[in-house]
Amino acid sequence: MIENFKDENGLILGYIEWQLVDQNGKHDNHGAFVWINDLYIAPQFRGNGNLRRLSLMIKEKVPWAKEFYFKREKYNKRQRQYKIEDF
Length: 87
What we know:
By secondary structure, this protein is mainly beta. It contains one helix and five strands. The chain has one helix at 50-61, and strands at residues 2-6, 12-21, 33-41, 67-72, 78-83. Helix 1 (50-61) links the parallel strand 3 (33-41) and strand 4 (67-72). The relative contact order is 0.20.
């Protein structure tokens, strides 16, 4: 799925592409984990709580999910993992 958020003029400020997966990382519509395939927030809007905003959008759609994770290209594809309730 793709979620995005816009400013008051309708301009897209950021987007997130995600899917539900099982504990083995395989696609599962009822999975307990959210794999974030792609994430972008316009540079001028980073650090303003917008990652939290996108995360809450996912949490509303899949309240049963336990954690979400992604790989950070900037840091040698190091994986980051967060508990959903932290947001």
